[in-house]
Specification:
- Helix content is about 40%, strand content about 15%.
- It has about 350 residues and is an alpha/beta fold.
- It folds into two domains: about 140 residues, 3-Layer(aba) Sandwich (Rossmann fold), CATH 3.40.50.2300; about 140 residues, 3-Layer(aba) Sandwich (Rossmann fold), CATH 3.40.50.
- The protein has a six-stranded parallel beta sheet, sandwiched between helices.
- Helix 5 crosses helix 12.
- It starts with 5 loop residues before the first helix and ends in a 9-residue tail after the last strand.
Length: about 350
């Protein structure tokens, strides 16, 4: 089957070639209805812009790509006596790991933080400039990813496994189970609240299932849904504390949050309310970002190998570029519970 061109897209969408070009280069200059029609035609045809057909056919770009959602958290920057290396968040560490591995294999790395309203367009733009693409789960719509994966090696980072693509995830369930068990068994806590991430996050849902399993194991009432959800920022952690404490009845003895950024926000909120941690309330996170050891009290968390996640993504892409017919690989990376002061285990 011949590779679709800009002419094919223009004909299918009923617009000029110049309009197709503007959709990808300056999308805001094109009316929304026209832009949607062009993008729909491109998806149907499997078209990738910016000379991608030539690049993908020759595999000569020497570049790997990484797409991830833009979860910039400005509050994470407001930590005294911390340098940039210490403030690296989840995506930053994945990027550094992938960049190191790509360099070892002779590739450069092109990264793209995708905004929700332009995720599909940004994916296509990056795909046209790289030999292989790593995509963090929930970054782009499935139909856009499917178009790209027809012509380009793709590896999925985190999220739910897809048998059509190489996939890497961490042991989210196991880590949250061990952490929750620690609070129940070692610290004797019985009233625990779980603050999850967005409901479409497979990683966050796996962590909640680990939380549930620890309750079932201990013979405690089984929660059927997270107490609250947030957008994985410090602000969301602050809001979660306010909502939980505003509820009638007994307050939780501990709050387990789906990631470290929310947990740091929760620590700040409790401090502002004069509630001591861990004596008044235990707090835990998940990820193990460097920020978790800078806050006071230091944060108990589940450390996942973020740098290794990026490194393995690069290795899988290189292997896929060399052999497009190999069977899809699935890798599960281990995690470790880091016990610190926020749960009562000291520094």
């Amino acid at each position: 089957m011949s590779t679709p061109t800009v002419y094919d897209v223009a004909e299918r969408a009923g617009v000029s070639i110049a309009t197709v070009s503007r959709v990808y280069r300056t999308p805001d200059s094109v009316r929304a209805a026209t832009r949607d029609r062009v993008l729909a035609a491109a998806r149907e045809l499997g078209y990738l812009p910016s000379g991608s057909a030539r690049g993908l056919a020759s595999r000569t770009t020497g570049v790997l790509g990484l797409c991830f959602p833009d979860f910039h958290d400005t509050e994470a920057e407001d930590v005294p006596d911390a340098d940039d290396a210490e403030l690296m968040l989840y995506s930053d560490e994945v990027i550094r790991g992938m960049e190191r591995a790509a360099r070892r294999h002779g590739y450069a790395l092109l990264i793209s933080a995708s905004h929700a309203d332009r995720a599909g367009e940004q994916l296509a733009e990056v795909a046209g400039r790289v030999d292989g693409l790593a995509v963090l789960a929930q970054t782009v719509p499935g139909e856009d990813l499917e178009v790209v994966s027809r012509r380009l090696p793709v590896v999925m980072l985190a999220g739910q496994r897809n048998d059509d693509h190489d996939h890497i995830e961490v042991a989210n369930f196991d880590g949250q189970l061990e952490l929750t068990r620690h609070l129940i068994v070692d610290h004797g806590l019985r009233r625990l609240a779980f603050v999850g991430g967005p409901p479409d996050s497979p990683d966050g849902e796996a962590r909640f299932r680990g939380f549930q399993a620890a309750h079932l194991e201990a013979g405690l009432p089984l929660p059927d849904h997270p107490d609250l959800r947030g957008d994985l920022t410090q602000s969301a952690g602050r809001k979660a504390v306010a909502e939980l404490l505003d509820r009638d009845g007994e307050h939780p003895q501990g709050i387990l949050l789906a990631n470290d950024q929310m947990a740091v926000g929760a620590l700040h909120a409790l401090e502002g309310l004069g509630i001591g941690v861990p004596d008044g309330m235990a707090v835990t996170g998940f990820d193990g970002i460097p920020l978790s050891r800078l806050v006071r009290p230091t944060l108990t968390t589940v450390r996942q190998p973020m740098g290794r996640l990026g490194e393995e993504a690069a290795q899988l892409l290189v292997a896929r570029i060399r052999d497009r017919d190999r069977a899809p690989a699935a890798r599960l990376l281990p995690v470790t519970v880091t016990r610190r002061a926020s749960c009562g285990c000291g520094q």
